[in-house]
Amino acid sequence: MAEQAPIVRFGIMGCANIAIKVSRAIGLAPNATVVAVASRNVNKALDFISAHGLPEGTRAYGSYEEILEDEGVDAMYVPLPTSLHLKWAVATVEKRKHLLLEKPVALCVADLDRILEACEVNGVQYMDATMWMHHPRTAKMKELLSDPSRFGQLQSIHSAFSYRGDAKFMASDIRVNVDLDALGVLGDAGWYCIRAILWASGYQLPDTAVALRNPKKNEAGVLLSCAAALTWDDGRVATFHCSFLTHITMEISVMGSEGVLNLTDFVIPYEESSAPFSFVSNSGFNNGSLGWIVPPEKHVVSTQLPQEALMVQEFSRLVGEIKSHGFKAEKKWLEISRKTQLVIDAVKASIDNGFEPVQVGN
User: What are the residue boundaries of the GFO/IDH/MocA-like oxidoreductase domain, all occurrences included (predicted)?
Assistant: First the structure.
């Protein structure tokens, strides 16, 4: 008889809107459950538990310190504002609780390095909450990009993620508050664009980042819209655009010498149960340039669980292996997070330094 996977017991530190989605995902994952929720006000934690149908007996705490003392919590999901991540992520892992950290994970790579070092010292699993990475569509797309006969050599990547914030968002959302999420749209939507570029390039860091001129900022100086170009010394180039001022857009285009991949809903698929993309290979114009010799293939990848539940399932599998078998934490997720943060830092430095090219650190 196959060994049953252990159930990972989650605490949720903070009642942000995104925690609604992830708490549901924890409930859908077969190897995870929510056992505790903390807020700065216990009534808010109680309301969150009640409003979102969390399991009977879920414990409510009125401070983040209290939930860290709960020995019945194996792993913590932390969706706090980015400015609080360093303090509470380190405090979480120092209590030997595994860490699922909402993105953007830190204000800069120096802060992230302190979080990741604490994870390694304490032997806990780390993962950032970039959900689309876990959809089976992502693996299928990577198969096609890895086929030299169909895709060829990577030449260029473009990514865009935008959504238009309403008046309430612009006035009070944490993502436009310099004291809470000083990276603004670059840390929020830009995180996804940069992760997509790194994913498509096999996580090879670009050599140089240069921000495009005339980004939009609010009165506090927080970025509301920006764009940048990334280059590699071998000639590859990538561009991205992220914005709180533009209609919802979620695009990736990956262009190779023999083929091109496109998708238009990479952050949140149009539907939970399936996700589309297109791929064209070895095509061209027909006689008279009246059409294409080979039109793009339309692919649709189905899934029984939404991508956020697959994320929780994979994270919990890794935690379960540590708990049950003494395995080492999987370091891949630390490395991917750090590379994403390095590019964010370089783009921000280019904006701050008059849009000059900046070498991407390592």
Answer: 140-261
Q: How many CB atoms lie within 10 A of CB 130?
A: 22
Which tens digit of pLDDT belongs to each residue from 238-250?
A: 999 999 999 999 9
- Residues 227, 263, 315, 7, Cα dihedral to 10°: 140
Expressed as residue numbers, the domain containing 218 is 133-307+341-359
In 3-state terms, the chain is what percent helix, strand and coil (to 5)? 40, 25, 40
Residues 122 and 177 in one domain: no
| Residues 79, 29 share a domain | yes
Which pairs from 280-284 meet CB under 8 Å and 24+ separation? 281/150, 281/151, 282/150, 282/258
Q: How confident is the model at residue 4 (pLDDT cuts 50, 70, 90)?
A: confident
Let me know whether 152 and 207 are in one domain: yes
14 touches 39 (CB < 8 A): yes
What is d(CA 207, CA 343) in angstroms, rounded to the nearest whole number? 10
Number of domains in the chain: 2
Tell me the CA end-to-end span of the chain in Å, nearest whole number. 46
Three-state SS at 2: coil
pLDDT of residue 1: 44
